[in-house]
Structure formats: C-alpha cells, structure tokens
Amino acid sequence: MEQDAANLSAGAGEEEEEAAVRASGGGFDFDPTEDELVLHFLRPQLRGFPPRVAGAVLEADPCGAAPWELLARYGLRERGHFFVARGRGRSAVRRAVSGAGAWMRSATRLGQSVTDLGVVVRWSRAKFCFYVPQPGQESGSGQGRQLRSAGWVLEEYQITDPRCYRRADEEEEDQYWILCRVRRSGDHGRRTESEAGAGMPPTSWNKVMEKEVNQK
Hints:
Layout: H1 2-24, H2 34-47, E1 58-59, H3 67-73, E2 79-87, E3 94-97, E4 101-114, E5 120-133, E6 147-159, E7 175-184, H4 203-215
Parallel strand pairs: 1-2
Antiparallel strand pairs: 2-7, 3-4, 4-5, 5-6, 6-7
C-alpha cells in the first residue's frame, strides 16, 4: 500500500511538472522552421485536428498585451507561438496594443510547403516590428508623437489557399486561424530548413511526443 501511495504521489508530481513545462515552454527547445509551423501546427488547427506537439502553440492574441508581458503570462522569455482568429480581409499595416504601443508591418513574404502526400500548402508571412512612444511622450498622440523600436518582432503566418485544408463544398468561414510567432528581434532561431532534415522534428520534440504516447 505504501509503495502504491508513493507511485501515485510520484505520478501526480510528474503530471504537475509536465503541465508547468508545457505552459512555460521551458522543458524543450521549441524552435520550429516555417515548414513545420505551417504543416504540423497551422494546417491541423484549420482542419480541426490536433497539432504535432500538444500545447506548444497557445491560443492568445499577440495584440492583447505588450510582447514581453504576453510571453511572461505563459512563462516564456525569448519567443512564443500563438493561434489567433482573424476576420477575412483584415490585412493591416498597423496593429495597436492598448496602452503599450503598436505593431508596424515591415515586410511580407509568400511561400509554400509540401506535405508527405504531396499536397502543396501556399502561405504568407507578414512581419511586424513593435514600436513604443519615446520617453515622456506616452500620453501624446497624433503625427507629432515619436516612436522607437522596442526590439520585438511579430510574424503572422496564414494559409492563403483554403483548398488545402477544407473541402470545396464547404462554405468560407468569416474567421480563420493564423499562427503568430513573437520573438525578440535578435532571436532568429537556431534551426534552418536544411537542418530540419526530411520533415523530422528535433530530438527535444520527440521526447515530448514519447511522453504523450506513453500516457495514452
């Protein structure tokens, strides 16, 4: 009985630790390539399927708080990945963050990724930089208000061809999911597309996936 109680206690402790790890992102180095973000996370989210790694991408609006505050809410530091629902045709060059500053679009890129079954997934990436008021101008407004870069970047990924994730007879939805990566401007990640290999996740991803399989 004592051994059973000890096992139960240990199991509960492991579950709490894993929950904390997933919320903070500190238990594994989640640094996906663009192909991995689109194919293993954004496309499954749009199709209503589970992602490659559960809990790695959170549902939160990057415009709901300053980037450092947003990451701090989830125990993150350098970067975080988020799903947010956007309305059709709501392409913006500026996204305001109440009381903090604004994301200003700096570049747009088109790309495509290919699934293991040969499905071509076309996507776009909009890059934003975060700007805050100059010291002493926090309460000002208008054209005379000067802004400075805060050293944070927002990358919004969206799939531009709905045919790769829904049937042709399905009606177009008013809102759809996009995937956002929020990071410090100096954090460009350590993995490139060539280093990612033939569609295989890094070893640290595999460890998390093995835990999930063993618990089922």
